[in-house]
Design a protein that fits this description.
alpha+beta, Multidrug-efflux Transporter Regulator, Chain: A, Domain 2, DNA Polymerase III, Chain A, domain 2, twelve-stranded antiparallel beta sheet, 10 helices, 30% strand, elongated
Length: 357
């Protein structure tokens, strides 16, 4: 015998490893999977059973979307290089999956909004309070139209009002009295929303109807059309999910902290430091310090910088006597929560305390 009896024809090998014969020819031409023998007279390719494991791995890597150049590193390169290639590809796939999920969610939401109406009934005073709390976080420069608006999102059995100017983000979550329909959202300019908030403050309950023909609000005796803005609001959910876990918590008198921040004059930045059960507010150079009693987590960052024009409104918008500060690091957003109202949250970006800048 000439040895070919121990080999498999290209068709037989293709069936064994789950690859098409044309794919095997391509991988031969690409020098990724060479036949064990090629008949000199006919050009027929023959494969050894010992090549089966390589072929199956090759098929799996290609099905996973790994580029051919990187496949060769996994098959023939050092183990550490192959591992790095696979870990990078896994990270790419995670990113692509998240992007695809977000795109599909937006598409599903737009289809739901276009094909049906959603009705939600909310307490008027609660909605007016949410408007008052969230609106200050919106931008007002007109540079980005979506940031001059407040997002009203109806999803997961909740109504969320969200606003951001990129330096802070405020969100209030409301539990509706009734909800009928699928997820939807709308954008309202802050000026229109403020006027709407004044109206709903005088009604017991308000029903929002969002549909393909627009958005309406009605009370027991009145009905009105709401002006909405066609713009793309930032993906605030991704922003929130990307936040690092809270490492430290501080509880302090809300109004005392607000007054201490405001009393620093026209400073562009202030410093907040922690010592024992005390919170100290000062100018960036540590002068003009005010010390407030606080309940502090151990091992807090020694110093965090804030823009008082951003921090003070966040404290003003909260309710109750105390405020909870959730801190992950000195250079990461600080979560400001009402200790008495967990449904209202504000993110405040810290600033660098370089007094020479």
């Amino acid at each position: 015998m000439d040895g070919s009896t121990e080999l498999l024809s290209i068709s037989a090998f293709a069936r064994r490893v789950g690859l098409a014969p044309s794919a095997l020819r391509f991988y031969d031409d690409s020098r990724v999977l060479r036949p064990a023998r090629v008949d000199g007279a006919t050009g027929y390719r023959f494969y050894s059973p010992a090549q089966e494991a390589r072929a199956v791995l090759l098929r799996g890597l290609r099905e996973a979307g790994l580029p051919l150049a990187e496949v060769t590193v996994v098959l023939d390169g050092p183990e550490h290089a192959g591992r790095e290639v696979l870990e990078r590809h896994l990270e790419r796939m995670r990113d692509q999956t998240q992007t695809a999920k977000a795109a599909v969610a937006v598409a599903l939401q737009s289809l739901s909004t276009a094909s049906s109406s959603t009705e939600v009934r909310i307490d008027g005073v609660e909605l007016a309070s949410a408007v008052r709390q969230v609106v200050p976080a919106a931008a007002s420069d007109g540079e980005h139209p979506a940031l001059d608006c407040v997002l009203i999102e109806i999803d997961d059995g909740e109504v969320r009002l969200v606003a951001t100017d990129r330096y802070r983000l405020s969100m209030r979550v409301l539990k509706p009295a009734a909800l009928d329909g699928g997820p939807c959202h709308l954008l309202m300019h802050t000026a229109d929303l403020i006027e709407f908030g004044q109206w709903v403050a005088r009604v017991h309950q308000v029903t929002l109807q969002v549909g393909p023909d627009g958005t309406r609000a009605r009370s027991a005796t009145q009905s009105r059309v709401l002006a909405t803005v066609d713009a793309e609001f930032p993906s605030y959910r991704e922003m929130l999910s990307a936040l690092p876990s809270t490492e430290y918590r501080v509880i302090v008198d809300r109004l005392a902290l607000r007054d201490a921040v405001n009393s620093r004059g026209d400073a562009a930045r202030i410093a907040v430091s922690f010592a024992g059960d005390e919170l100290v507010v000062s100018l960036a150079d540590r002068s003009h310090a005010a010390t407030l009693p606080a309940i502090c987590h151990e091992d807090l960052p020694q110093l965090i910088g804030f823009d008082p024009a951003v921090l003070a409104p966040a404290l003003e918008a909260s309710v109750g006597p105390d405020v909870l500060l959730e801190i992950s690091a000195a250079d990461r957003p600080v979560v400001v929560r009402s200790a008495d109202q967990g449904s209202f949250t504000t993110l405040v970006m810290p600033v660098a305390l370089n007094t020479s800048s």
